[in-house]
């Protein structure tokens, strides 16, 4: 099994991609404009914790199914390290989330998870459960070539199944199908001959199209997006490319009944170089797609000791958290191997980590919930996952760091949720707080007892004194010499 891989592990959508849109409606605001296209909502006046709602007539983005420009290879594709070593430990996330027990309730059978990423390369551990769903980088590859290595690792966390008991690693939903849609790649670029500049493959326009494509793919019930665009909140409330992503997510949830899952974002990413503001009403950075929390589960990364990973971007839109460090997954360059390290551009080996790898745990869990509770719609599945997570000690059980907390797959698959049975939540009851009257203790019995006890002790001491005196007098008389006659 390959112990390392060579790749540029973070494939992100740069904030400058806000201008790279292919299907903008005529009435919408211009790309990159900082002026809102509708009056500010109350949320906008307070800050940017939530985006303004979509206008009712805002159209779902049209899916061209084509790359938005002619991309060519920029760097060589990912390759396995020459030497290999056995991986002696399972991923810590498997034990924490109790994968072995989870399989007693659901395995993801009958569910398909669309992975919008850098593509997914065929691997033995997918068996015949991997299919191409489209490609916005090189159309002919149909999503089944992962030059970056990122998407294959993400898909492995969702649905890898070695079917070999001697191999400890497996995905959280080992019987789920994977539909790969390649939407981005840091290893491909477009060179503009007029400006002599280049851009990597992937932008918000193709992301919106990929979401629509995934939602329209037969059998897809969950979407995983481990790609993000992060930009300063000072750029303005919402731009048209972002609104298209919002519209695509709304379409997936409300019209196609699909659960979207996205990574919360990593530092540094795009234009985001520092951690977000702790003020939930006024974030410093906005991360897309997580910002649209009404229509997506966004996932923060946790470490093995239960802390939030330092690189995990916080924000009021974070939904839940999942393991995101010391990752083991599929080797994208070896169809029979695993990987636990990546090699950066300088040749330094590093552990695989990121919110990109926390999101597929949640996407896989969503597939399990959809199998076990087929009657639940997409919103209810999202609510169930949030309701059964390990809530932080914060108001409403939610904070900017981990959302509603670390996911709990066993609880998500077994808990009783009253709202799902149309049971109204308990109404708040105004119970007046009244202090009880002061307790007037009767000290008379205690006083009598103390006086009696004191008298008894006094009599006992007097008796002992008299007895002692009498004995001493008798002893003195016996010791006195008798006079002789």
TrEMBL record:
Q: What is its main location?
A: membrane
A Pfam family (short name) is Peptidase_S8
EC identifiers of the protein: 3.4.21.-
Return the broad EC class.
hydrolase
Q: Where is the signal peptide?
A: 1-28
Q: Does the keyword Membrane apply?
A: yes
Topology relative to the membrane: Single-pass membrane protein
Q: Which segments show compositional bias classed as Low complexity?
A: 24-49
Task: Please provide the record's keywords in A-Z order.
Answer: Cell membrane, Hydrolase, Membrane, Protease, Serine protease, Signal, Transmembrane, Transmembrane helix
- Show the active-site residues: 117, 150, 356
List the subcellular locations: Cell membrane
Kindly list the residue ranges recorded as spanning the membrane: 448-467
Which biological process terms from the Gene Ontology are attached to this UniProt entry? Answer: proteolysis
Question: In which residue ranges is the amino acid composition biased (Pro residues)?
Answer: 50-59
GO terms, molecular function? serine-type endopeptidase activity
PROSITE patterns attached to this UniProt entry: SUBTILASE (PS51892), SUBTILASE_ASP (PS00136), SUBTILASE_HIS (PS00137), SUBTILASE_SER (PS00138)
Q: Where is the Peptidase S8/S53 domain?
A: 108-405
* Cellular compartments per GO CC: plasma membrane
Family indicated by similarity: Belongs to the peptidase S8 family.
Check the record and name the PANTHER family matching this protein: CEREVISIN-RELATED, PEPTIDASE S8
The UniProt entry, under NCBIfam families, shows: T7SS_mycosin
- The name this protein carries in UniProt is Membrane-anchored mycosin MYCP
Origin species, per record, is Actinophytocola algeriensis
